[in-house]
Amino acid sequence: MMKRFLIALVALMLAGPVLAQSGPLRLTITDGVIEPLPFAVPSFEPENAAAAQVAADITRLVSLDLSGTGLFREIPASAFISAHSSFAQAVAYPDWRAINAQALISGAVTVSGNQLIVKFRLYDVFSGSEMGGGLQFAGTVDGWRRMAHKVADAAYGRITGEGGYFDSRIVFVSESGPKDNRQKRLAIMDFDGANMQFLTDSSALVLAPRFSPTGDRVLYTSFASGFPRINVLDVTSVGTRQLQTADGEMAFSPRFSRDGTQVIYSLANGGNTDIYRGDIASGASTRLTSAPSIETAPSLSPDGSQIVFESDRSGTQQMYIMSANGGDARRISFGDGRYATPVWSPRGDLIAFTKQNAGRFHIGVMRTDGSEERLLTSSFLDEGPTWSPNGRVIMFMRETQGAGGTSSLYSVDVSGRNLKPVPLPNGASDPSWGPLQP
Amino acid sequence: MRSAGTYISAIGHVGLIGWLISGWGFSSEPLPFEVAEVSVVSGEEFAAILAATTPQPDVANPTAPAQPLIEDAPTPIEPETAPQVVPTPEPAVQPDAETPPPEAPEPPAPPSDVADVAPEPPAPPAVEAAPDLAVSPRPQPRPAPRVAPVAVAPPAPEADVADIVRDAVVPDDSAVAEVVEPAQTPTAPEEAATEIAIEDAAPSGAVTTSARPRTRPNRPAPATETPTTTASDDAAVAAAVAAAMAATAPDLPAGPPMSGSEKEGFRVAVNRCWNVDPGSEAARVTVTVAFGLDRDGGVQGDVRQLAVDGGTSGSQSIAFQAARRAILRCGASGYDLPADKYDQWREVEITFDPSGMRLR
Q: Which domains can be identified in chain A, with CATH numbers?
């Protein structure tokens, strides 16, 4: 046995130098480039005359959705070499390679009556193959925007490997009027600001709406009774009902649990504010913190096991994490300034927050252990971050300075790039991003 | 190291000992006794003389015996100047080091194998700062090899020589801008001077540092697994021996190994097509891929995934796709590689490690 081993060893020693010299060339690359991925979307093919307009609209919106992420760059149709006018036509990859298109989206649209059918395929140009199979969506002509968002989500997911966020909605507080007499109403919109609708009238002050995990209900704080109370609103029926709280208690800052059956919220009683968990159906509640300081703005981790919240127990507003059942909390924010409104990322790896330091407000993110803090924005007043369903984008409220200052919604990529306003007719604040729609 | 210090120390000691001797001789009187012994006298005379002469030496002391010894003491001072003489022995040692001319006959032998390889072995620990020396490390004794109407300062070491001056463009993570320029190597016009300078007229071109030798190109591959893993030991041994014997004969690589700048050029050619999205989960995945190249530098067959580390299966797939796309895109018209070293780059393995680009 030993002899064999020795023979093998000798053989390897003989072979070693040869293998070393004739082996592959080995390189390590650590610095790539960061640039939007160029893609091409030839106009979707209208499969009948009625579909011509909506096919063009859908093509435009798919392109806008993808370009709007900052991760993709559309190649203008004027640069196309290959016409690719038919959905069934084979792709002439060299033509698309020549204009450096890395992804090609091809689609077809059929309209019959009020029914709309959208088909699409996605191609990886440089490997000359299709990415995933073809997909087909059916809906109504009125819902053509959602169909376009669905196509964009599918393309985004296949290229990036992460879920999209285009077919999602955002609930927020729509604001109108001057700062000293501002009308606030709950409103809902598509992620891109389209299809805005009001959910409440302007009779009572409303604050901090929060989507349920399934997107069918909204929690918000209403001052209709003079005291802050938590209401649950059904998005489809627009019916509301109030969560039970005792007289003299002020409940606010609610969020749904991950299963949507419970609410975690803040309750102020006798000058002390603590975090509670309440059952929506029965109204039973459990106190989770009992410090004499102010604990508020709770947000659950995606697995529902932990809660991040803000507290001034150290003397200034800082962020803490505790078990979802209460108990000891550990502080995670240690930088200069004050930290507020923590929100746990749907991916679970980051916590977004508002930071106030040296007279400026920032939206930032840090890892759940408090490390790798990065500030993404800076302005006179940035506040109230909310995560896109895929944990890639943060939307927040930005208010401008002065008596005539207006508030509006902005979105920013988690990398700090692609900061841009959400186009809305009125002022807006307190956004809450809902899930991808089914 | 036998330096002047050693000699000074030695001479100092000698001086000290000399002084001690002189001091001892000064106070001692045996010398006169020795003198007395030389003259043969009777015992009585001796006793009388002894009694009488004892004072004499005291008087004589300052004159004869002590002074010579004191003259010896000054000699230690001489040695102090002597170190000047002493160093000469050291030069005698240096000549040994410099005499490699005589030893040179030995080095010339390796150069006969391969000129490049000879300098490498002496300094394997060379750091990878070597890429910076992509420009010819040979110092120019004359101000500039090129003459142009306008004097041009030597380009930065990392700059390519070109007619148009461009600044390096580096991806800016902090910028909000949506469009990020791809990284590109800076270019600068070739170095030039306004006059022809004669070598003699420009003695200041002396080199202070020399180019660091490059590291050895290929580390022996850990190819220890192939033979030992098979079930049958005999078969394994036979296979290993056969493989070794077979491998020794035909597979000798043709041509010299690739130089550092050639590898660097290839690396840059691929990484300018490697698009990383630092906010994605795929930016946490390190992937190693392998592919073959034909003689024109074109990618042969498909890019294969060899190893992957970190991330979820979904993000791993995306990371591999990004690596594959980089290789295919930038190699669409063939990589520019030295044809005479084809055996060195016929098979390529590249590790794409985005850890340095991840968001912080």
A: 37-160 (3.40.50.10070), 168-436 (2.120.10.30)
